[in-house]
């Protein structure tokens, strides 16, 4: 048992390293691509692309649900080590994905199209371009949904090298698209950008399917219908889709609120802050992607002790990793944005700072969701968490009616997220036999102390250091060292500190 657990830990460490190399490359390429695209499209067209694409994403809220369901069911099927179970699982998931992608097509060409034509602020001379971008965005989401089954299969098998290579090809392809926009003179750049993004999604779809068919025998199968299994899946998807609907709803709802109250220029500021958020969140996404398959398997087979250890590790280290990158960026956001962008839209700095704070505190939510999904009975969790998060948009609307400050919607989001975090631990922890007070003592207490002291120290440094390159490097270095010290002394327990010291000694002895 101990040998198997040690092997699993080595696999997690190796996969984490692979995903972090992938993440660093993707982050650099993604941020540089955003800079080029913003420069090529301009502030108005860039904002239009994000708000128009946001409508499709809102309609495609099932995409996130299907990714969750695919990953959960495939990983659980793998734990049985039975090919027939794995084939049945993959086939049913693929069937459901194809079916629901056409449901999104119907919704997009009815409700979504009406909303685009009647509710979104679009300059008259750009409406035709926005219409075609909308159509291509629908097709992009459909292809992405169908691909999710193959993506989940690669993650469940923990083949992170393949996942990293394919993601890198995708990122480099988008960089080439961005460069091509600069040289377009006689065509509409916004429409061309939407079409090329669709093309890249189709390329990804075929690469994923070819790799899976060559490496995983369960994917070499047609549509095998199993009524009982489909019923089980649809029950899971029904409740999971409520959570995804809420997540997409408040995310795109805030985007639409900002468009209605302030216009597309503020949407551009939010889009840039989301780009920064996505790049930073890749740190925890990659770490959690390496742990999630093991966490799901431990919960599925009833190994509560191992599940508790992985839950605590995933929660704490996800938070600390985001702090290590996010807090310095919060402090030096104006300097970074001025270096990154040729023109920094109004409100971008405050949006980036607030989004990073939200991201840091939201990082501990996903491990709890994974435990809940692995256990299978997700109804109560989805209803309670989703209902609380659903209040973000109406409360933000009321706040904007009282005070027209766009940053207030992010403040509302943060407070509601903190409330939702309490609900998550109350529902999830009993499923693996863990007490709420033990979790709070191990996670929330040290995390809060580390976060508050780090922000105060970083703010103190910024008062005395200037904006020169040397000052920025010195600030990041001092703040990072202080953060690492806090994590080691406050964030880690005695056993975790001991393991880290032993690991370092082992590497030095080699």
Automatic annotation (TrEMBL):
<feature type="transmembrane region" description="Helical">
    <location>
        <begin position="383"/>
        <end position="402"/>
    </location>
</feature>
<keyword id="KW-1133">Transmembrane helix</keyword>
<dbReference type="GO" id="GO:0005886">
    <property type="term" value="C:plasma membrane"/>
</dbReference>
<feature type="transmembrane region" description="Helical">
    <location>
        <begin position="190"/>
        <end position="211"/>
    </location>
</feature>
<feature type="transmembrane region" description="Helical">
    <location>
        <begin position="90"/>
        <end position="116"/>
    </location>
</feature>
<keyword id="KW-1003">Cell membrane</keyword>
<feature type="transmembrane region" description="Helical">
    <location>
        <begin position="46"/>
        <end position="69"/>
    </location>
</feature>
<feature type="transmembrane region" description="Helical">
    <location>
        <begin position="131"/>
        <end position="150"/>
    </location>
</feature>
<protein>
    <submittedName>
        <fullName>Lipopolysaccharide biosynthesis protein</fullName>
    </submittedName>
</protein>
<feature type="transmembrane region" description="Helical">
    <location>
        <begin position="319"/>
        <end position="341"/>
    </location>
</feature>
<feature type="transmembrane region" description="Helical">
    <location>
        <begin position="162"/>
        <end position="184"/>
    </location>
</feature>
<feature type="transmembrane region" description="Helical">
    <location>
        <begin position="469"/>
        <end position="488"/>
    </location>
</feature>
<feature type="transmembrane region" description="Helical">
    <location>
        <begin position="12"/>
        <end position="34"/>
    </location>
</feature>
<feature type="transmembrane region" description="Helical">
    <location>
        <begin position="441"/>
        <end position="463"/>
    </location>
</feature>
<keyword id="KW-0812">Transmembrane</keyword>
<feature type="transmembrane region" description="Helical">
    <location>
        <begin position="347"/>
        <end position="371"/>
    </location>
</feature>
<dbReference type="InterPro" id="IPR050833">
    <property type="entry name" value="Poly_Biosynth_Transport"/>
</dbReference>
<keyword id="KW-0472">Membrane</keyword>
């Amino acid at each position: 048992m101990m040998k198997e657990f040690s092997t699993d830990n080595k696999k997690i460490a190796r996969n984490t390293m692979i995903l972090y190399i992938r993440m660093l490359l993707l982050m650099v390429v993604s941020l540089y691509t955003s800079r080029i695209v913003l420069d090529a499209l301009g502030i108005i067209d860039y904002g239009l692309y994000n708000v128009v694409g946001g409508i499709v994403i809102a309609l495609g809220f099932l995409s996130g649900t299907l990714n969750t369901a695919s990953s959960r069911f495939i990983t659980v099927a793998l734990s049985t080590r039975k090919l027939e179970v794995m084939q049945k699982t993959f086939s049913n998931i693929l069937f459901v994905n194809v079916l629901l992608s056409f449901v999104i097509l119907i919704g997009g060409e009815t409700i979504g199209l009406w909303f685009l034509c009647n509710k979104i602020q679009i300059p008259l001379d750009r409406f035709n371009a926005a219409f075609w971008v909308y159509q291509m965005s629908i097709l992009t989401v459909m292809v992405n949904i169908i691909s999710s089954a193959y993506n989940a299969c690669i993650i469940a098998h923990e083949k992170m090298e393949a996942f990293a290579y394919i993601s890198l090809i995708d990122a480099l392809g988008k960089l080439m698209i961005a460069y091509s926009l600069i040289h377009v003179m006689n065509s509409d750049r916004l429409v061309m950008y939407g079409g090329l993004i669709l093309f890249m999604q189709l390329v990804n779809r075929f690469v994923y399917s070819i790799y899976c068919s060559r490496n995983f025998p369960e994917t070499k199968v047609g549509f095998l219908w199993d009524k009982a299994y489909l019923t089980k899946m649809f029950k899971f998807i029904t409740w999971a889709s409520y959570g995804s609907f809420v997540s997409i709803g408040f995310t795109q709802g805030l985007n639409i609120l900002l468009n209605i109250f302030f216009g597309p220029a503020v949407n551009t500021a939010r889009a840039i802050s989301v780009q920064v958020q996505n790049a930073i969140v890749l740190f925890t996404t990659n770490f959690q992607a390496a742990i999630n398959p093991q966490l799901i398997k431990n919960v599925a087979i009833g190994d509560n002790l191992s599940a508790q250890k992985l839950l605590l590790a995933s929660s704490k280290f996800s938070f600390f990793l985001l702090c290590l990158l996010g807090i310095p960026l919060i402090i030096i956001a104006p300097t970074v944005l001025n270096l990154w962008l040729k023109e920094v839209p109004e409100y971008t700095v405050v949006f980036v700072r607030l989004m990073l704070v939200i991201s840091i505190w939201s990082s501990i939510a996903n491990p709890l969701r994974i435990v809940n999904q692995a256990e299978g009975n997700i109804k109560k969790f989805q209803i309670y968490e989703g209902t609380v998060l659903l209040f973000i948009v109406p409360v933000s609307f009321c706040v904007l009616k009282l005070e027209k400050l766009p940053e207030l919607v992010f403040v509302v989001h943060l407070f509601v997220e903190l409330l939702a975090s309490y609900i998550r631990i109350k529902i999830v922890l009993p499923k693996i036999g863990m007490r709420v007070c033990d979790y709070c003592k191990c996670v929330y207490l040290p995390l809060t102390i580390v976060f508050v002291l780090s922000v105060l120290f970083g703010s103190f440094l910024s008062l005395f250091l200037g904006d020169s390159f040397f000052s920025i490097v010195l600030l990041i270095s001092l703040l990072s060292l202080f953060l690492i010290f806090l994590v080691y002394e406050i964030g880690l327990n005695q056993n975790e500190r001991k393991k880290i010291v032993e690991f370092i000694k082992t590497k030095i002895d080699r």
